[in-house]
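Researcher: We plan to redesign the surface later, but first we want a full-length starting point. Tokens attached.
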């Protein structure tokens, strides 16, 4: 958000509350806090060295009912996606994000791949992600021309590709990473396991608001 837009919004809020402009000292303090947000208390589960964070991400993602494959490089991606589809008796057909990181899916093996947004008839989507959060096993996906949000919700089966180098400890680190990446995307989706809800008796139902299966392919790009 630009400074002019922020000023306009804050001015309207102050007017609705019957308050005047902020004193210069208070405005300086506010601007400083917005420019350099201070993290809150970070739990121990969000700390550790790189190897610990990757292993914790795997543990927490699987605890949230996501399945997971680990591969050494992107060349193995078509094979593990095809094998996962076969294990679940799904046709070898996917709709994949137009992101260049998924170009490896095309022209390899038996997969039929189309690129672009998802439609109601699509059964399986494949997307990259922005980050993985070790604290909770959460995937962070951002919207954009190369990563349509419909891929995250319409198909019953969602395959997400995450690199080990994208895994951060906690949410504070993820938000700092996102701010450093540049302009904030229109949508940030945080996905922990497949979609689920509980009925009045708290019986868990999968696929209520999105995919009933979430499969993560973790590329160990930090093995060296």
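Model: Full-length starting sequence:
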């Amino acid at each position: 958000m630009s400074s002019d837009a922020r000023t306009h919004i804050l001015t309207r809020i102050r007017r609705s509350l019957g308050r005047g402009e902020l004193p210069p000292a208070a405005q300086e303090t506010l601007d400083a806090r917005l420019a350099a947000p201070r993290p809150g208390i970070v739990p121990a589960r969000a700390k550790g060295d790189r190897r610990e964070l990757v292993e914790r991400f795997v543990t927490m993602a699987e605890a949230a009912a996501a399945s997971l494959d680990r591969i050494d490089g992107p060349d193995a991606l078509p094979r593990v996606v095809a094998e996962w589809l076969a294990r679940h008796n799904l046709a070898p057909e996917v709709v994949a994000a137009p992101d260049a990181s998924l170009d490896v899916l095309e022209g390899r093996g038996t997969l039929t791949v189309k690129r672009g947004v998802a439609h109601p008839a699509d059964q399986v989507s494949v997307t990259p992600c922005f980050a993985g959060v070790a604290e909770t096993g959460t995937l962070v996906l951002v919207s954009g021309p190369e990563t349509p949000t419909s891929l995250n919700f319409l198909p019953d089966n969602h395959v997400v590709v995450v690199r080990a180098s994208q895994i951060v400890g906690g949410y504070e680190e993820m938000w700092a990473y996102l701010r450093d990446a540049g302009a904030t995307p229109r949508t940030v989706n945080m996905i922990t396991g497949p979609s689920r809800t509980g009925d009045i008796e708290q019986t868990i139902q999968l696929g209520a608001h999105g995919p009933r299966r979430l499969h993560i392919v973790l590329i160990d790009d930090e093995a060296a």
